[in-house]
Structures are given as C-alpha cells and as structure tokens.
Amino acid sequence: MKIAILGNGGREHAIAKKISESPKLSKLYCLPGNAGTNSIAENVNLDIYNFENLGKFVDENQIDLVIVGPEKPLVEGVVDFLKKKKVKVFGPNKISSQLEGSKIFTKKICEKYNIPTAQFGIFESLKGAHDYLDKINKPIVVKADGLAGGKGVYICEDTVSAKNAVNEIFKGKFGLANQVLIEEFLQGEEMSYFVISDGKTFKKFNTAQDHKRVGEGDKGKNTGGMGAYSPSGLINKDLDLKIIEKIVKPTFAAINDLGETYNGFLYVGLMIKENNPYLVEYNVRMGDPECQTILPLLKTDFLELILSCCEKKLKSQNIEWKNKKSMCIVLCSKGYPEIYKKKVEITNLDKQKNDINSFIYHAGTQLIDDKLYAIGGRVLNFVSISENLKDSRDKIIKKIDDLGWKNGFYRKDIGYKIIDK
Ligand code: AMP
Ligand code: GLY
Question: Residues 40, 133: one domain?
Fold first, then answer.
C-alpha cells in the first residue's frame, strides 16, 4: 500500500517509523516530514493546508491511505475534503474535530452529557467577564476558544492577571474572539489517556504522562511538551472504568447525536483527583511527545490497526502491548518556548548508537546540503524502552550529554513524580 503521513514533528516521525515496519507497506510519503522521516520515507515539501494541491498529490501518486498527524488540518476539514474524493483517511472530520478546535463546543457537551470537568462560564463581553472575575475565587483559568498552539490558556493567581488575560483574548491575540471561557482551577495530577475509534467501536490506546512546563519541577512557561513516559503511574482498573463510562462514552454519544461518527485517535486530557477523572481538554490526534512513548510499546501491526478503523472493523482487531515502560525526553533549542535561533547545525548525531530499545525521533530538524540543522523549538526526541523508567532516563541523559549539542537544553527530571519519590 502507498501511504502518506501529514505533519513534520516527532509524533509524525514515530508514526512513520511504526508504519514503515508493516509488511503491508509498499511506499511511504511524509508531507512535509523532517530530517528523520527522510531516511524511512520520501519527504515531499507540499503545503498540506492547500487541500487542492494535496488532492492532486494523492491522485497523481495513487495514495491508498492518508494519516493525519496534527490537529490544524483536521480542524480545517482535510478529512472531509479527502473523503469527498473517495480517499481513505485516518482522522476525525471537521465537526468531530471541534472537540479540540473549540473549547466552548466541548464544554457545552460536558454540560449536556454530565461529563465531569471544571465548572465554567462563557462570556460574550469584556464587562460580563470582568464582573464575574471580581466575584470569583482565585486561582482561575481563562481560555481562548479556538486553536492557539498551546498558548491560549492562562492560569491566573489574581484578579488583575485574569482581567488582563480576558483583555488579550478579546483584543484578538488568538484570532477574532467574541467569547471567552473562564474555568475553575482543578487541583490534582494530569494524565493523558488515548482512545482509537472507528465510529462504531472504540478501544483504549494506552496512557502517558506529559511534562508541559519548560522548567524542572514543572516550573515556568507551558510548552508543547518537554518529555513523557508511558504508561501513566496513575492508571488503575477503577479509574479506567470511570474514564470510559463518565467521559469517553458520553462524548462519542454526543458526536453521534450530532449525526457524526468519530474515526481516529482521541486524546483525553485529564486531571485526576482522589482517583476521579475530570476532563481538562480533548485533542483529536495523538499527543506529542506522548505518541513517541506509546507507539514503541505497540506490538500489533500499526498499519493493520489503522486500516481496521478506516474499514470500521476495529471490534475484531486485537491491540497488543509490550509489557515495558517507555520514556521520551525532548531536546529543545535554547530559548524555547520563546525566542530561539533557527538553522543551527547539529553534528555527530550519526555517531549515536541506536537499537531496538533506544532511539531518536526527529522533530524540528531539516537536512540542508546533507547537513543536519535544528529549525524548530523542539528538536530531537530521545526514547528509551526498559523495565524501569529510571534506567530509561539515565540512558537518555547519557546519550544527550554524549551528543553535546551546544544550542540545546532539556529537562533532566522527566518522570520525577514516580522515579524520585
Ligand atoms: P489545555 O490547552 O486546555 O490543555 O490547557 C493547557 C494546560 O493548562 C493543561 O495541560 C493544564 O496543565 C492546564 N489547565 C487547563 N485547564 C485547567 C484547569 N481548569 N485547572 C487546572 N489546570 C488547567
Ligand atoms: N503533549 C501535549 C499535546 O500533544 O497537546
């Protein structure tokens, strides 16, 4: 089969690697891909948001299946566009993708279907939001409605910063806004829970723990994710059941009530408090870097699994996992998540020793004249699989230090809540 993967991050390199291991694959394209996918697929430098051009590429190259990595093309309706052309595609359609594309859409579903989540208010005017903030206890969370590349969420300790957040959102910092979401601050521990769905059946697709803050001890600015491990230390049978019954099932019921079916991954972002789950957010794709920790643990042929979803045969498809733990640490460009240098060379990466349990996924990298350059904030994902997360972390830290990339930094404390306690 000829497969095209959309996206260029670490998540897409992990997806490409797993797909490349399938005997069903004949040719793999990454659109646009990165320096890592380049060695296992053909990278094609194409604007994936220009759907007409994407459609032409799919036709001309007789692509059998398109796998969508990131949220933006999903929210913009790439699945609807390709399906209209009768192309097989893995990912949710435009309406279902509103679960990530609009936080207010999701909150309204939570309210209607009694899904546990932070209490909230939706405000359509600056004055209404300010008046509410004068009355309510702090900390409080202020959110822009739409996609904001992980930046539209403000955790506010006092009224002044909360009002500033509301002002920024209404001024259009994240695009035209006529509504703002204000939420109760949830205490607890976060967990990423994944589900794969064919629209008729869904199955759990493992758990992970992400580290979103830039600094050790979970301090500093929010990022796309500085590292993760899988499975999460918080999961247990009772919690699993509550997540499925109270959150996942009613959500798919809500999508069905809209006359839609959900095909793809659903990322359930949770806060866990006293073994009870609260929905923080949905993402309509795999997490990054969670995907880089989860996929290496998968034993089942990934391409077969995705095909079973596209053909609505997930019910009869087993999903098997290695009984191991996995960790990913992200090597970033100094300055990330704010200003950082682009096009900085990385040397000696080819001298790193990789094997089946220890390897590197590329994220913001590009080959220029056969030399490797960092072009993004999150650059390389070091992954290790073992029986024990501490061993994995030690191995990864040694590898990153051996590489000695001067423009890089990383968190040495990934997994600290369960390793170092
Ligand atoms: P989101 O983009 O909605 O995932 O928010 C980004 C991050 O902000 C989450 O991963 C949480 O760490 C934090 N967050 C969002 N909403 C809340 C909330 N209601 N209570 C506490 N933390 C939150
Ligand atoms: N790691 C968080 C995300 O993928 O949104």
Answer: no
Question: Of 237, 334, 260, which is closest to residue 105 (Cα–Cα)?
Answer: 260
| HSE-CB for 7 with a 13 A CA cutoff | 26
pLDDT tens for 127-163 read: 999 999 999 999 999 999 999 987 899 999 999 999 9
- Which ligand has an atom closest to residue 142 CA? 1
186-231 residue pLDDT tens = 999 999 999 999 999 999 999 999 999 999 999 999 899 999 999 9
**CA–CA distance, 265 with 204 (Å, rounded to integer):** 10
Instruction: Judge whether 119 lies within some domain.
Output: no
pTM: 0.97
Cα 192 to middle of ligand 2, angstroms:
9
Is 35 found in the same domain as 74?
A: yes
The residue type of 329 is I
Q: Which of 266, 281, 288 to mutate to test the pocket of ligand 1 (most atoms within 8 A of CB)?
A: 281
- Pocket flag, ligand 2, residue 413 (CB < 6 Å): no
Angle, helix 10-20 to helix 302-310, in steps of 10 degrees: 100
Could you list the residue range(s) of the whole structural domain that residue 54 is in? 2-91
C-alpha span between 421 and 401 (Å, rounded): 24
**Domain containing residue 371: CATH number:** 3.90.600.10
Question: Which ligand has the shortest distance to the CA of 69?
Answer: 2
Which atom, in ligand 1's list, is nearest to the CA of 185? 20
